[in-house]
Amino acid sequence: WIALGSCPGSGNKYDFDNEVSTQTQLIVWEWQSESFILKQSGYSNSVTNSYECLAYSPDASLLITGGIDGRLKVWNLFTGFCVSMFTTEHKGPVTAVEFVPGKDGKVFVSCSLDGTVKAFDLNRYRCFRTLAAPSDSKPAQFISLAVDKIGGDFIAAGSHNFFEIFLWSLKTGRLLEMLSGHEAPVSSVKFSPNSNTLYSCSWDCTVRIWNLFEGAKHTREVIKLSSDALCLDIREDGHEFAVATLNGTISFYGAQSGDQLGIGIEGKHDLGRSRYKGEEVDDKYKYFSTFAYSVDGQYLVAAGRSKYVCIYNVKQKLLVKRFEISNNLSLDGFAEFISKRKMQEFGFDMDRIKHRDDESSFAPIALPGVMKSDYADRKLMPIIAVTQIRFSPTMRSFALASTEGVLYYSVDNTTTFNPYELDTSVTLDSYRENISQKHYAQALTQALKFNDWNLIQESLENIPYDQIGFTASTLSLPMVGQLLGHLDKGFEKTGHFEFYVRWVESILIQHACAMKSCPSTEQTTALRRLHQTLKNKHQDLAKIVKLPGPAQDKPNVYDFGTPYEQMYNDLLNKDKNLYTQNGILHMLDRNRRIKLHPEKFQTCRDKFDVIFTCEERVYDQVVEEMNSRSPLDYSTVHIINIDVQDNHEEATIGALLMLKMAQSLAQSKDLDNDIDELLQEFETTINRPLLHTIAFQ
C-alpha cells in the first residue's frame, strides 16, 4: 500500500478562472491492483482544514461536522471514517449543527451564513426542509442554532446581522416568531431540557430568557453581564446554565431564578500565553469562545483561541485537566514566548515590524473585521483556535472543531487485556476450576478481574437462569459498573437477548439503591449506553412480527408490513392442523377482514376524540406517546383502558363492552364535562376497573 497526502495549492490564475476547488486529501493506493482502497478529503478551499461546528448523535455513534466551505460531513466514530458528505446544500460557511431529539438520531439541522437553516434525513441522506428568514434586502446570517429538546419541533437560530432570533416549526416549515430585544449579534441560543423556555446571549452583554408561549415581545428576564457574551450552555437537568464572556470568565446562573450561583471560573491563566503576529499584547484573545457541560453536570470542558483545552469541576470551580491540542509551530498564537532568533539588536521583534514598500511607502494592514486570519496577507499564518467543543452523550469522549480539524478524545482504548485488581490467586487455572465445580460467583468475579470479554461471556452464560439474582447480589459496587459495560457489549455480540436483560434487571434490583447513593461516572455512562442499546433493540424488534411455530425456538417471523393474507396462506400451507388448534389461523383470519397488515399507533397521526386500550401496559404506552408529541391545536383526546384478557372469548366480550361505552359517550353533547360521570356509571354497571386520562393533540 502507498499512502498519498495532498494539500491545497497556492491558487493560481487558472484555478481561480476555472473555479478549481483545491482541497486536502488522503488516498491509500494499492500498487499491485493499481487502484486506491481509501479516499478521505478534508475541508475548505483555503490553507487549513478549518472546522466550524460539530454535534454528536444521541447514541454517540455518529459525529456531524460543518466547515467554512459549506460542507457537512457524517463521521462514524467506531471506524473514524467519513461515511457521507453534503456538499451543495449550503452556499456559505456552516456555523452550527444540532441533532433533533426523538428521531432515533436520524435527523439533524444546520445553519449557515448563507441565511438558511436546513434539516437533513440520515435514512435517505437528503435535505428535506429549508428554513429561511423573510428579508427584502439581504438574508440573515445565522451564527447560532438550537433545537427544542422536549418535542423536537421548534428550531431557533440567532442572527449575526439582524440581532434577532428566528423561531420555526420543523414539521410545517413555517416561521412562528421573530424574537427581538438584543442589540448585537446573538452568539448562542439554547432550549431548556424540561420546559418551553429559550435562553439566548449576545455581544450586547445580556442574557435573555424567553417564554415561547408568551409571544415575541415577552422576555421573561434580562440578565446583565460584565462583558460580551460569547457562548451559553444549559445543564442536562435544566436547573443551571453557564455563560462565557469576553473577559475570560465563565459564570453560572440558576435557570429558574436567574440569580448568579457563587463565583465563576476565571480562565485567563489556564489558556496560557499566546504570541500573535503583529499584536502588541499577548492576552488580547484570552477567553473561552466555546464550552459544554458533561451529561451528569459535574464537569465542564472549555476552549478558545488557544492551544489548550481545559476541563473544570463545576462544583469546586477547579481545573481538573488541561490538554494541548496541537504541536504545529506554523500556527499563529502557538508560541508562548518570542524566539531569540527573531530578536534584533535593540530588542525589536521581527514579526512586529512591517516592512514598507520602497515605491508606495505604506505598510500593509489587515482587512477590517478579520478575526481568524488575514487571507489578504502573502505570508498567511492560520491562527490556532477551537470553534466548538462537545461532550459525548455517553461521557466516554469529547470532540472539538479547530483550525487543525476535528480532534476526538476518548477514555476508551483498544487494549484487549486490561486487568482489574489482579493478585496471585487469580489465574486462568483457578477460573477453569471454579467453572467446572459450578462456583459461578467466584468464576464471574475472576473473569471481571481479568477484564476479558470472552471469559466474562463464558462465565455469564454458564450461570443457570434461576441463580442470576443470587450471583448478582455477590458483586461489589465497582464490579457492577464494570459488568454493566460488558453487558452492553453482550447485547451486540450474542443472541441471548432475554438472558442478558435478566442480568441487567437483577443488577438493578440488587444494587440500585447503592448506585444511587454512591454514583460514579462509570456507572452512569454504562447505564446510559445500556439504555440506548436496549432502545435500539426494541426498535429492531418492532420491525418484525413473531408468531408461534412448531417449537419454542422456531417461531414464524415476518416483516412488519407483511399482509395478514400472506401470513394466513403461509401458515395454512405449512401445517393447517397445528395452527388451527393453537388459534393462530383464526386470529389471522379475523385480522385480515379488519385491516390489511399490522399497524403501529406511533406512526398514526390522525386526530381522535376517544382512544380505547385493552391492557394497562398498552394504556401507559399510549399516554406516553401522546404526551411526547407536539400539540398542533391543543384539542383534547380521552384515553380509556378496560382490561381484557387475550383470548377469543374475552376479546368478544370486551369488544361488545367498548362498543356500548362508545355509543354512550357519543350521545353526550359536552363530552369533556360529562365523561367522568359516564365512566363512573359504566364502571359500576360492568363491575370492571377503568383507567382514564386526558391528552392534547
UniProtKB/TrEMBL annotation:
<dbReference type="GO" id="GO:0034388">
    <property type="term" value="C:Pwp2p-containing subcomplex of 90S preribosome"/>
</dbReference>
<dbReference type="GO" id="GO:0004722">
    <property type="term" value="F:protein serine/threonine phosphatase activity"/>
</dbReference>
<dbReference type="InterPro" id="IPR027145">
    <property type="entry name" value="PWP2"/>
</dbReference>
<keyword id="KW-0904">Protein phosphatase</keyword>
<dbReference type="Pfam" id="PF00400">
    <property type="entry name" value="WD40"/>
</dbReference>
<dbReference type="InterPro" id="IPR019775">
    <property type="entry name" value="WD40_repeat_CS"/>
</dbReference>
<dbReference type="GO" id="GO:0032040">
    <property type="term" value="C:small-subunit processome"/>
</dbReference>
<dbReference type="InterPro" id="IPR006811">
    <property type="entry name" value="RNA_pol_II_suA"/>
</dbReference>
<keyword id="KW-0378">Hydrolase</keyword>
<dbReference type="InterPro" id="IPR001680">
    <property type="entry name" value="WD40_rpt"/>
</dbReference>
<feature type="coiled-coil region">
    <location>
        <begin position="661"/>
        <end position="688"/>
    </location>
</feature>
<feature type="repeat" description="WD">
    <location>
        <begin position="87"/>
        <end position="130"/>
    </location>
</feature>
<comment type="similarity">
    <text>Belongs to the SSU72 phosphatase family.</text>
</comment>
<feature type="repeat" description="WD">
    <location>
        <begin position="44"/>
        <end position="85"/>
    </location>
</feature>
<feature type="repeat" description="WD">
    <location>
        <begin position="179"/>
        <end position="212"/>
    </location>
</feature>
<keyword id="KW-0507">mRNA processing</keyword>
<keyword id="KW-0853">WD repeat</keyword>
<keyword id="KW-0677">Repeat</keyword>
<dbReference type="InterPro" id="IPR015943">
    <property type="entry name" value="WD40/YVTN_repeat-like_dom_sf"/>
</dbReference>
<dbReference type="GO" id="GO:0006397">
    <property type="term" value="P:mRNA processing"/>
</dbReference>
<keyword id="KW-0539">Nucleus</keyword>
<dbReference type="GO" id="GO:0000028">
    <property type="term" value="P:ribosomal small subunit assembly"/>
</dbReference>
<dbReference type="Pfam" id="PF04722">
    <property type="entry name" value="Ssu72"/>
</dbReference>
<dbReference type="InterPro" id="IPR036322">
    <property type="entry name" value="WD40_repeat_dom_sf"/>
</dbReference>
<protein>
    <recommendedName>
        <fullName>protein-serine/threonine phosphatase</fullName>
        <ecNumber>3.1.3.16</ecNumber>
    </recommendedName>
</protein>
<keyword id="KW-0175">Coiled coil</keyword>
<dbReference type="GO" id="GO:0000462">
    <property type="term" value="P:maturation of SSU-rRNA from tricistronic rRNA transcript (SSU-rRNA, 5.8S rRNA, LSU-rRNA)"/>
</dbReference>
